[in-house]
Amino acid sequence: MAITAPSPQLTQRSATDLAAAIRNRQLTAREVVQAHVDRLHARQPRTNALACDRFADALAEADQADERIKSDPDPPPFLGVPCTIKESFAVEGMPNAVACAAYHYLSNSVGGVTVEFMRESDRKAWVNFVPPRWIYPGASICGVPSEVSRAFLRGWYAQNGVSLGNPRLGFVCTAQTTDGQHGLSGYFLEHDLDLSPEERVRQALKAAA
Predict the structure, then answer these.
(1) Which of 28, 46, 115, 157 is the residue whose CA sits 20 to 30 A from 167?
(2) What residue numbers bound the domain in which 199 lies?
(3) In the chain, how many domains are there?
(4) Ramachandran assignment for 74, one of left (phi > 0), alpha (psi -120 to 50 degrees), beta (any other)
């Protein structure tokens, strides 16, 4: 007698398989998304894979996808299939300050730069670059003029909010290695009001002992 293999759990099936099942109405997008939400809830305490979630929005969007599939003969190919999005991408309802800090943590870590990341809240997240910095052995980075570090922050960190379309997002620098402090440190902060170009980076430095 032939034995039929059990269907794999929804969270183990490929995106193309799930897309076809949703499109052919063998599964609903709500069922698929709920299965992934349940799996993430179960594994998050151990993996800490999500910086933040939007589960309620995802389930609401799944319901919208199911309604569209009922009437649309040619829906988008992966409509209703859930996915995770890296924090460095601006997604509606997700905190931009955390996205920026997480991006700098990830991108620098990939490049071999030692950096620490801490989310304080949805509107405030820290980055700290620990010496020795990148190509500078020992304390040699302290020979770089402080103005060079400030110019770097104005040219790059000040533009993060602009890139995300968030005029309230800025960076507050609390320490600079070039000033003889413990490292380049600071936090991305979403303010209550739009920032002028001069306000996108603020210095909140303490004199080195």
Answers:
(1) 115
(2) 96-203
(3) 2
(4) beta
